Amino acid sequence: MAKPLALTDLQLDIMQILWTAGEASIAEVHRALRGRRLAHATVATLLSRLEKKGAIRHSTEGRQFIYRPVLKQAEVQKSMIAKVRDVLFAEDVPALISQLLADRDISREELDHVKALIEKKERELSERARSFRKSKER
User: Contact, 15 vs 76, CB < 8 A?
Assistant: First the structure.
């Protein structure tokens, strides 16, 4: 996605419902959000706004709209993290990572996974540097 996607907490809740269910009618989304005490029309408006943002699409089955996610959860996560990184951390990746790690307890498995991701990125950077040097030698 070129432009970072900005979704409210409620829109994210709706996206989570659609990612989990695969598809849902307005009534089904409304039922899934029953703890929020929203009017049926409010849910319909929220779904319409998500569709305008390109996050979901609908088809008609009988007299009801059936909504499906267009964007994958990972795409939305990536877009929203990029926005947080750029806006709140002025693209300061170490500060962002530091905040993420300091914000909550992290398990040994999660920490090992983060280390593996960093090691992978180090290998990619080393390979890119080698390729760059080789192209300069030619």
Answer: yes
Range of the structural domain that residue 118 is part of: 105-137
Residues in the chain: 138
Give backbone dihedrals phi and psi of 3, rounded to 5 degrees, phi first. Answer: -100, 130
How do residues 95-107 score in pLDDT, each as one tens digit? 988 888 887 888 9
- For the beta carbon of residue 70, count every other beta carbon within 10 angstroms: 14
DSSP string for 58-78: EEEETTEEEEEESS-HHHHHH
Q: For residue 97, is it within any domain?
A: no
Q: Collapsing DSSP states into helix, strand and coil, what is residue 24?
A: strand
Distance in angstroms (rounded) separating the CA atoms of residues 16 and 22: 10
Provide the token pair at 20: 């989990």
